[in-house]
Amino acid sequence: MKFTIPITLVVLTVLLMVAGLVWTGHAGGTVGIAAGSAMYGLTPKADTPEHALANLLADAQRRNWDRAYADVSKTSDVDESSFIQDWIGSNGGLRSFSSLEGFDSRPMHITNDEAQMRVRLHWTTPVGPIEDVRDFHLIKEGDVWKTVWPKVQVPSVPAQVVPVTYLRWDLVTGGAADEWGSKNVDAPHVRIISMNAVDSAEGAVVMGEVVNEDTIPAFVNVNATLVDGAGNAIDQENSFDKIAHILLPKQVTPYRIDFPTISLKSVKNVRMDVKATLVPASADPVIGVMNQKVESDAQGKNVLHGDLLNESGQTVNIPHVVASFYDNNGKVVWVADGYVDRALLPQSSEPFAVEIPRSLAGKVQNFHVVVNQYSLGRS
Amino acid sequence: MQRLLQVCVRVLLGVACLVGFCRAQDFRVPAAVSAGDEADISTAGNGKATFHLIGPGVSRKSELNLGESIHLQAQDTRTAGDYLAIVCSSTCRSGSFYVSVAKPATLTFLVHPSRVPVAQSDAVSGVLLPFDQFHNLILHPLTVNFQLTTGNASLLSRQVPTQNGIAWFRALSGKSAGLLQVTAAVDDLSARRAVQQVASDPCNLRITGQRTKVGISVQTEPVRDCAGNPVPDGTIVTFTATSANGKSSVDAPIKRGIAQAQMLASGATSISAASGVVMGNEVRVGAQP
Amino acid sequence: MMHFSYCLARFRSSFSVAAFALCLGVSLNLHADSAVQVQLNFKKASPRGVEELTERAILRDYRFAWTSIAQALEFNTLDPLEGPFAGDAKRWLKQSVVSQQQAGLNQKYVGQTHHVEAVFYAPEGDVMELHDTAEYQLQISDGGKVIHDEHAVVHYVVLMTPAADRWVIRLLQAVPQF
Question: Does A132 touch chain B (CB under 8 A)?
Fold first, then answer.
């Protein structure tokens, strides 16, 4: 009798542990798509490509690198440290702060000896959830399947000294005791040069471009208020991160403001407001956007892709791309943004891609990309 | 007779009471006080009373003997405005007086903007408000002398009287980039502000490009506005290269008057430049040999 | 069961008291706000014309400022003065409250009516001068006893400047006439 409670507690604990392991990383339940992860210590044998890939991704999700690397084929041209770094990121890139929330995989092509699997990886990042689609090649080795890990391309940057000669602006704020009128530094002069309001699948969208007409850098935010026929405000939103916030003199950035679940049918007017504040800034790093092209990707989506080239001597930890798309009249028809999850090393490049909605792809005649960048430890 | 005597006593008592009442509560406030001046409020009568002074920034209460005068310190009358003096013994009586402003001591000078493109009409404006040493706005007319100078040249010299305590001006900016000194003077008081005159939008933005081993090197000629002022360093010039491989763009800041960038493009390429909303010329660079 | 009923009853009565207090507070606030009548005329404002949104903002913020003055001087509290005022106006209003607290006095502004005219609006919109003919019943109390009660008509010269999200009063100076 006196052992009843302890035994009950032990049994309950074991059951809960098993349940937690069984349901870890479970994502979706669509037939034909393997998802989630298997039970620790009780992973299914990698006797199918689906099981093999699920084992690898589950181990990577749990950061059990030895087991994950053991799921990789020896024919892969990658060592364990490169494999780990490919997963966890480096140089303060966005991947370094992300974790794999879940995954969905589907077979593209399977034979007796090799298979092609497409995986949708769901990442949790500081800038919100990000989806990444990757194709994996698997081969059968004996009676188990193994994943062939692609060679990890790490930019080789030769040691060098890169002088920084670009302009930098510092901000000196006056003291609290300064008399009225003596603090004569105006806020930067910025102007909205275009605005277009459209209805999208997710709701109303207001987008356009804003220019810094001043000779000093500006931290810019664009707000929009939707007004009904009676002059009452329906909703107010701002551009959040769909804008390059720091604008150097004469720099142009697109902006996009989303109003989820609101339709323009009830909107009579859109009131725009741009706020610009003084901010210290640097003209360095200069990031070039190369080889920009609008094409269909492997999933049939219309994407603008290209390469970001870091022409400076400092690492850009988290590059952020904001792209504006124009019709043949030069009107902004869409603004899309995307984060690159790898850091941009000096004098090296990384690919980027942003999606264009299928309904608008036909209208796009031109585009322009600006690069926002966040570097750790710098203002 | 007795009745007449009673009536007389009552009348005398009434008059005495009336006189006593007035004398117990009578006081005189100053006719005119300037800010920061000391003043006296005289009281009449006898007995104890409580004195209250309520004004802008002042609420004071003190006990006094009627017949004494109440001395207002300079700190009691610093702020110009409406003051109320109340003396209470058995009843309360009040009197109000105004404290007027003192002589001008400081000038608040608001000038906009702090940066202005050259050669723009009505680009610079200023507003002057004169205050006394206690920060009271001086509302009677004063003559303000506004002067705008850039280098040795005078852009504006104008005398403007204040109206309702304010004088203002509007002027065009100079033709050359540099510092614009703006001065406002009232008698021997003056206030000075500086406005940075900057180049306007780039004019005749011209670029050249040549193929290198790694791609195309493109740069602008010295970037100036239409008046010939060099556009400040740090201004962004956007280079765009279009070829069969796609499009490349670089936002390059001007450095020592010139912006330059390296573009990756292998085939025949067309390169253009823009700064803000100003477009430059287009150059074509042949394919890599 | 009895304990539950008792708790429920206590909760109900506490909730009722809280709801009543909330309604009272809201109604007092609304009453204080609606007790200040402001009529604003911008026809004479120059050299810059006053934009419609600015007119509404000035009306709203000026009314709120006087409501705050009334609250601060009646209840001898500094909190209402934080938002609507800046510079010298804030300084002397705070001094008024502090010295009232020390003297045991308070002032009541009842039935305020303000006839306000904008006489100057700076070219860059950074300062506006208003002339306010204010009428109100002024009651001054010492330790709860009313020592002064009059219907006052006071002329104020007011300077307002734009702050981060509102217009604030920077100068509030009474004058004999405009």
Answer: no
Whether residue B234 and residue A166 make contact (CB cut-off 8 A), yes or no, is: yes
A105's enclosing H/E stretch is: strand A99-110
Question: What is the ipTM metric for this complex?
Answer: 0.82
- Which chain B residues are within 8 Å of C126, Cβ to Cβ? 110, 112, 127
Which residue in A185, A212, A248 is closest to B253 by CB distance? Answer: A248
Give me the CATH topology for the region B2-100: Immunoglobulin-like (2.60.40)
Contact C140 B86 (CB under 8 A): yes
Determine, for residues B52 and C147 on separate chains, whether the beta-carbon distance falls below 8 Å: yes
Domain C36-175 sits in CATH 1.10.405.10 = no
Nearest to A181 among B108, B253, B263 (CB): B108
pLDDT for residue A24 is more than 60: no
Q: Give the pLDDT band of residue A86 (cuts 50, 70, 90).
A: confident
Residue-level pLDDT at A232: 92
Task: Select the residue from B53, B54, B139 to test the C interface by mutation, using most C Cβ atoms within 10 A.
Answer: B54
Query: Is residue A173's pLDDT more than 80?
Result: no
Structural domains present in chain A: 18-148 (3.10.450.100), 168-174+183-281 (2.60.40.10), 285-374 (2.60.40.10)
Average pLDDT score over chain A: 86
In the block, residue with structure tokens 């705050």:
C68
Q: CATH assignment of B202-285?
A: 2.60.40.10
Average pLDDT rounded to a whole number, residues B271-287: 90
Tell me the CA distances in angstroms from B77 to B97, B101, B135, one per residue in order: 11, 10, 12
Higher pLDDT, C7 or B142: B142
* Interchain CB distance below 8 Å, C124 and B110: yes
State mean pLDDT over B100-111: 95
Mean pLDDT, chain B, as a whole number?
Answer: 88
Phi/psi of residue C25, nearest 5 degrees = -60, -45
Contact B183, B191 (CB under 8 A): yes
Enumerate chain B positions whose Cβ falls within 8 A of a Cβ in A.
106, 108-115, 191, 193-196, 198-199, 201-202, 232-238, 240, 245-253, 255, 261-264, 275-278
Place of tokens 């045991």: C104
**Cβ of residue C87 closer than 8 Å to a chain A Cβ:** yes
Q: Answer yes or no: is pLDDT of C7 > 60.
A: no
Question: B198: which chain A residues are within 8 Å (Cβ-Cβ)?
Answer: 215
Nearest chain C CA: its distance from A269 CA (Å):
15
- Provide CATH 2.60.40.10 ranges for chain B: 2-100, 104-198, 202-285
The model's pTM is: 0.73
The mean per-residue pLDDT over the stretch C80-108 comes to 94
Q: SS3 sequence, chain B?
A: CHHHHHHHHHHHHHHHHHHHHHHHHCEECCCCEECCCCEEEEECCCCEEEEEEEECCEEEEEEEEECEEEEECHHHHCCCEEEEEEEECCCEEEEEEEEECCCEEEEEEEEECCEEECCCCCCEEEEEEEEECCCCECCCCCEEEEEEEECCEEEEEEEEECECCEEEEEECCCCCCEEEEEEEEECCEEEEEEEEEECCCEECCCEEEEECCCCEEEEECCCEECCCCECCCCCEEEEEEEECCEEEEEEEECECCECEEEECCCCCEEEEEEECCEEEEEEEECCCC
Report whether pLDDT(A83) > 80: yes
Q: For domain B104-198, which architecture applies?
A: Sandwich (2.60)
Q: What is the dihedral of CA A344, A346, A351, A355, to 10 degrees?
A: 50
Q: Which residues of B125-142 are buried (b: 16+ CB within 10 A; e: fewer)?
A: bbbbbbbbebbbbbbeeb
Of A184, A189, A249, the CB nearest to B236: A249
Average pLDDT over residues A11-39: 63
